[in-house]
Amino acid sequence: MNFVFGRSFRSIRWALIALLSLASVLQAQSGGGESDVRIVLTGDSLVNQRLSTSTDPAGVALFRIIQQSDAAFTNFETLIHSYAFPAAAESGGAYASAPTWLPSELKWAGFNLLSTANNHSYDFGERGLLSTLKALDDAGFAHAGTGINLAFARAPGYVETPKGRFSLVAVTSTFSSASIAGEQRPDLIGRPGVNPLRFTTTYTVNQELFDALLKVSALAEHGGAGEERRGRSARSSVRIGGLQFCVGDGQGVHTQLNKNDLEGLIASVRNARRESEWVIVSSHTHESGDRQENPPEFLIQAAHAAIDAGADVFVAHGPHILRGIEIYKNKPIFYSLGNFIFENETMLFQPAESYNDLGLPANSTTADYYDARSANDTRGFPANKSVWESSIAEVSFHTDHTLNKVVLTPISLGYKEPRSRRGRPRLAGPEQSKQTIEHLAKLSAQYGTTISEQNGRGMITGEEKTR
Prior knowledge:
By secondary structure, the protein is an alpha/beta fold. It folds into two domains: 2-198 and 259-349 and 384-461, Metallo-dependent phosphatases (Purple Acid Phosphatase, chain A, domain 2, 4-Layer Sandwich); 200-252, no CATH class. The protein is built from twelve helices and 22 strands. A hairpin with a 2-residue loop joins strand 10 (237-240) and strand 11. It is globular and about 70 Å long. The relative contact order is 0.14.
């Protein structure tokens, strides 16, 4: 009897939390005019289970926010197929797969814009990618970031709504070498794949270390130091084993965008700007700056370039944790919204390579694989609390494209819950909401962005000082 009462009490408690949370969101939204445009943005979605069957009040209230938006985005970080295709030789981690009925669940959830460009896009090779694109096309989804060649991968995806036509341009900086989409030529068809956002990394070192590296380079290339002595005064950079070094004051790591990929991104955004009312740009980026919670230089460069070219919003994802928010020229940049749905431990099958890498016998099951990979939840994603605490963002614009406000709604993905339940999002409780908003405020302060807390939500107003 006490057990039943306890469960009933918890259900009532969560129902009250959900109702209060939804009420606060609706109150926050009421500051804008009825004609304001609302865009909901989420991070990575790796989905394997049905979303519509849950009656959890905190989950129902969360999806209600998405369903009431004009446009709703997520990074679709999986593949739709029936395991009819062989796994690729290289994957983005665990080999991603999702049931064929999944598009109907994404429709129920309220999403209408999907990025398909990420490190899992080629887990099952070309056929797995094309199977996914067909499933999304058949379901009527607007998607971007992958295609039958580079032109298609770069092309915006469009969705028509009562508030106008929305477009999505998507890139990824994290991918396998085989997954890059190829250009079409008059004499040769292109290659299916992702829209890449490549970059170079340069390590700045002092003169003493640089001289030593020059000597190593000369020995490797010429078998002696004579070339090093002759070229030393003229050279300011050297490449060794795929790593680029330059001489300078102090030490540091710097990244720079690939010129062709940057030009391709700008061209796609300018095209979308002329073909739609609202433009969203997405980047899947695992790479970090001086620490994991900071974005790399090249991502900041890409975000600014996209907005300069006409984007209304830039949203990144990939590191599975939250990063800061910048307001640039009165447009929001989300350097990572972390995870939204993270069911990466309930995929039905994994290829032999996955088991072999962990030294598991041939008769092992997927449950054995997931247990071994995380050492029974003591390492990796299951042991990292920050992976399971995130936020969604609601961006509202006035019809003249000026920013009204950004509302940040903290979510929980069930840290330490059983594998069959964790990864499913729901509104966070009061304590986690407070911590998440404070964390985002700290991460965003470096960009001059102020986030205030209102009824368990983070708020950025359109009057926010912009860079």
